[in-house]
Amino acid sequence: MGLFSGKCVSKARLDGKTAVVTGANTGIGKETVKDFFQRGARVIVACRNVDKANQAVEDIKKEFSNGENLGELMVTQLDLTSLKSVRNCAKVILETEKRIDLLINNAGVMMCPEGRTDDGFEMQFGTNHLGHFLLTLLLLPKICQSTPARIVNVSSVAHKYGCIDFDDLNWEKRKYSSLGAYQQSKLANILFSKELVRRLAAANVSGVNVYSLHPGVITTELGRHLDYRLRWLWRLFSFMIKTPDQGAQTTIYCAVDENCANETGLYYADCAVAAAAPAAQNSVDAERLWDESLKLVGLESNYNPFTASQVK
After folding, report:
1. DSSP state of 277
2. Angle between the 178-202 and 283-296 helix axes, to the nearest 10 degrees?
3. Collapsing DSSP states into helix, strand and coil, what is residue 192?
4. CA-based torsion, 223, 102, 267, 252: positive or negative
5. Is 182 a catalytic residue?
6. What tens digit of pLDDT does each residue of 164-202 get?
7. pLDDT (tens digit, 9 = 90+) per residue, 5-23?
8. Shortest CA distance to 152 belongs to which of 53, 48, 266?
9. End-to-end CA distance of the chain
10. Which candidate in 182, 211, 253, 268 is catalytic?
11. Nearest residue to 133 via CA among 125, 141, 142, 123
12. What is d(CA 228, CA 233) in angstroms, rounded to the nearest whole number?
């Protein structure tokens, strides 16, 4: 259990609100769903494995079977390694949900062996950044109609050691580094958040706040690809490792806390604003990454994600 961990103490209710949480069948995603469910939200559990998602939902309902003023839990299929799946998921949500008050881009992979998504992207960049980039843009019209709304992008302190190689975003020229690819994808999460805030303002869209965060080092399935050296360090610094519940606190804070209701575009750790790396504040890179990402996910350069008529 992590000895140093922030905690969201807000008692804010989410009655009548709808939240979409990706990667929500385990780890901090599942803990986030639990919290929202207790606050009365309708929660869309968006996961690759529908069977595991349904089991997670049943587990949560059983855990809180005696609870009062609970929300609703719905499962939808989302495979972030497939742009087709991302589009299908967005289509289902847009057709079935009247509003989207919270979008929690939580799912991800960490330091996995070299691999490619269904669309040929480097696995970590494709999953952690491009999949969420496309999902967010497709859901934005509904989010903009549901203000006040929040978008929370789960990044990592690993972004501080990353760089965006625009000449080789998908690691086709360089010798592959699972750590380097992870760091790039987490830096991309924050740059995406930064550019989204800028474009929301440019489009005169108010009431949609965007947050990025480091959840901490957590005992979840994400660590399954660590090599023996990193596993040794993991054990050595076990006193700093958080439980999934502790790791979910900053996500929950950014999603519900009144103290950050008027904050947007900032980076958080342990339920407080933190300093992101200089590379994460590079507005030129943020804009370029947006443009490159549009091309990679197959959207036109003039795609406007802030109006419903643009949804594809």
Report:
1. P
2. 100
3. helix
4. negative
5. yes
6. 999 999 999 999 999 999 999 999 999 999 999 999 999
7. 799 999 999 999 999 999 9
8. 266
9. 44
10. 182
11. 125
12. 9
